[in-house]
């Protein structure tokens, strides 16, 4: 299991919304400048992706982490109870 490192949990929690909004703004700017069909950037495994594909990747990836966080919360609650 991977363990997050580098930033305190509270900082991540407090900054996450703003960071996601900033990322979406940058993706929207690229989409407006280069068009919807252009592959904007290469993902190291998936290859070149469009803005729409980047948004979907981040959504799926975020949901994956959300499931992990919920599992950790539940397991911690069970251990304490």
Summarize the structure.
The protein is mainly alpha-helical and 81 residues long. It contains two helices and two strands, in the order H-E-E-H.
What does this structure look like?
There is one protein chain. The protein contains two helices and two strands; from the N terminus they run H-E-E-H. It is 69% helix and 7% strand. The radius of gyration is 16 Å and the shape is elongated. It has a two-stranded antiparallel ribbon. It has helices at 9-34, 51-80; strands spanning 41-43, 47-49. It has 81 residues and is mostly helical. The longest helix has 30 residues, at 51-80.
Secondary structure category: mainly alpha
**Average pLDDT level:** 85
Beta-strand portion reads 5-15%
For the biggest β-sheet, the strand order reads 1-2
User: How does the major sheet shape up?
Assistant: 2 strands, antiparallel
- Please bin the fraction of helical residues: 55-70%
Low-pLDDT segments: none
Q: Report Rg.
A: 16 Å
Shape: elongated
| Number of separate helices | 2
Q: What distance lies between the first and last C-alpha atoms, to the nearest angstrom?
A: 23 Å
**Number of beta-strand segments:** 2
Write the element-wise H/E pattern from the N-terminal end onward.
HEEH
Give the arrangement of secondary structure elements.
Elements: H1 9-34, E1 41-43, E2 47-49, H2 51-80
Antiparallel strand pairs: 1-2
Please supply descriptive tags for the structure shown above.
two-stranded antiparallel sheet; mainly alpha; 81 residues; 7% strand; elongated
